[in-house]
Amino acid sequence: MKSDVIIIGGGASGLMAAYGAARTLVQSGSDASVIVLEKMPRPGRKIMLTGKGRCNFTNLKSWNDFSGHIRAGSELVKNAFFNFSPQSVIDFMEGNGMPSVVERGDRAYPASYHASDVVDTLVRACNGVGVKIVQDCEVRGISVSKDDSEWRFNLGCSDGGSWLCKKLIIATGGLSYPGTGSTGDGYAWAESFGHSITPLFPSLTALVPAGYKSEILPSNEGRFHIDRSSPLSETGKLFCGIQLKNIGATLLVGGSEAQSEFGDIYFTDGGIEGPIGFQLSRKAVKAMTNGSKVALVLDLKSGVEREELSSRVKSLWDEVQKDPRSKGLKDKEKCRILLGKLMPWDLIPAFRACFPGIVRVERRSRTETKTWVDLSLICTALKEWRFEIVGYVGYERAVVTAGGVSTSEISRKTMESRLVPGLYFCGEILDIDSDTGGYNLQTAFCSGLLAGESAAQSLQD
Length: 461
Known about the structure:
It is a single chain. The chain is of the alpha+beta class and 461 residues long. It has three domains: 2-201 and 401-459, FAD/NAD(P)-binding domain (3-Layer(bba) Sandwich); 206-294 and 388-392, no CATH class; 306-383, no CATH class. The chain contains 13 helices and 22 strands. Strands 1, 2, 7, 8, 9, 10 and 21 form a seven-stranded mixed beta sheet that branches. Helix 1 runs parallel beside helix 13, helix 3 (74-83) crosses helix 13 (439-459) and helix 9 crosses helix 12 (375-383). It is elongated and about 100 Å long. The relative contact order is 0.20.
């Protein structure tokens, strides 16, 4: 079976590449064919999981701000970004029947908040320009040959069939969420063509503090990988489900500050996640895999200086002590009331478990004991709550894969391989990854569109 352009992978970048190629061919009056080979029963499986099913599909920041959220590969993305900007992505979605809304942080969502609408829109757009999507078609091998001074790609599939094409776009994604079909097939193919693969590791993933899990299940992803299904410890259960808003978080690598963020942190069955948890995870995972010790320090009162907080805590403690309702209460219970004025109530059990010395019992004689509350320790804990990080959740739930096909071997003007004519790459298979917030899908869409348009245009040169 033959096609002029074949895209391997029906995810965000692959579907956009197919649309870009087919639209370019239609506009030029060409009858060349474009086919997507998707090994899953339905395209866009990973898109369905984006934003917890709500799908934050782009971010409207300008390039200067947007590029600051790209952790690797920003120079390769730049041309693609200006070729298909975030506003262009929104216009594309709305032009193909999907209204959108923009929320805090310039994040764009489908108006329905259903990720399935994004997938349906991409498929509808592809169908509208004549793209054929072949599902349940797993490519097992690729070879290249030269016929009449023209390169051709031969694809062998798991069903025994084969495909032949002039232009090949590899959009197979990374290793994250393998259940969606992202199993890293493209890396081996890239290497077979002579491309370099920068080290791969999970990014935008949960960081696991010491003592958070009661048992570490075996893993083949490395000694710091802790499978999300590993059971929680009693301490982990106290944390799980808590969300902390507007706090500071500092990542320490080898005892030195490596990165600081401000925003929201979530404690889940995996570990520490949420917007800033994810942003810190990339550098944390890389440091651990390189053998460095990693810690996370939370500042629950980042807007208050230590001296001011100390004064405030003492004042609140005096209020609790003098409150008529405190009469007859033990200091341990008064301490709980004080903590309730300083943090969410559901955090108190975990906080006290981590800092048992807050309430101290001093034995003065055989018959006399004195209980007292260490206000200084409360202040220190609020400003410098330290978590030793012992591992991370791996590709089974990591949002993206960091590392990939070296961007130095890809043309930033066309997304074409500098090593093999007619071969293109786009999306997560490349050494490009970004923060959470619509940045990764935007880079997938714009790199895919540029790859597709470039492949189609080269057919006509």
